[in-house]
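User: Just a sanity check before I run the rest of the batch. Below are the structure tokens for the first item. I only need the designed sequence back.
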């Protein structure tokens, strides 16, 4: 999933339907096409302005967690809430190439906040599946991948319930394990960011990753290490 322009034949086919589909949904709808070639700038096409993201924006944390867990079943009609309180009905549809490998996803977001007020009349239109299972994170829509990474790191640190200065090794390993399960380390520069947040070195983060993954195959040449910010 290295850098690329996301214009393969499969994604090209989907790219042509983004704007027409958004127009069908109207001003409360948004359609986004993500390419997995460059997760930091995965949005290759977007129409509508529900979440305020631009073309070239990053993947969402929910999709990151799916990639990390290798779970690529479609997620249809789940609930999202934006920071301003608006309620979205969302769907994420994974796109596969001719060999069946996931190469991107088509995401549809519809602002149903107004419809919620008339739920008794429009219940069928607003019907949603239960919220995304608790083992997955609430989806965040970020315009900057490092802002999303910092938010993910802060949430994991807060989950320990003590300041970093008072954390023991087990606490820090727990933070790294949680971040890893959410796909945090698929983001460029994530190892350095985690090291700064936990007050340790990048090499210690690699060791923690070895421990939580039960392997010693982490390579320093991975994209999160070699492409760290400022290097």
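Assistant: Here's the designed sequence for the first item:
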């Amino acid at each position: 999933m290295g850098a690329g322009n996301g214009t393969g034949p499969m994604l090209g086919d989907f790219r042509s339907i983004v704007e027409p589909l958004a127009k069908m949904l109207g001003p409360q709808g948004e359609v986004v096409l993500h390419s997995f070639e460059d997760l930091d700038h995965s949005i290759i096409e977007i129409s509508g302005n529900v979440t305020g993201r631009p073309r070239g924006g990053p993947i969402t944390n929910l999709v990151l967690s799916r990639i990390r867990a290798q779970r690529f079943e479609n997620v249809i009609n789940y609930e999202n809430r934006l920071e301003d309180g608006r309620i979205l009905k969302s769907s994420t549809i994974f796109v596969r190439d001719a060999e069946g490998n996931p190469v991107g996803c088509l995401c549809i977001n519809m602002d149903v906040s107004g419809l919620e007020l008339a739920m008794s009349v429009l219940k069928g239109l607003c019907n949603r599946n239960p919220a995304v299972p608790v083992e997955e994170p609430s989806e965040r829509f970020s315009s900057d991948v490092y802002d999303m990474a910092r938010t993910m790191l802060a949430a994991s640190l807060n989950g320990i319930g003590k300041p970093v200065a008072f954390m023991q090794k087990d606490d820090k390993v727990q933070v790294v394990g949680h971040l890893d399960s959410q796909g945090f380390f698929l983001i460029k520069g994530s190892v350095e960011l985690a090291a700064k947040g936990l007050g340790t070195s990048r090499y210690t983060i690699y060791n923690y990753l070895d421990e939580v993954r039960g392997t010693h195959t982490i390579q320093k040449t991975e994209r999160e290490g070699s492409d760290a910010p400022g290097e």
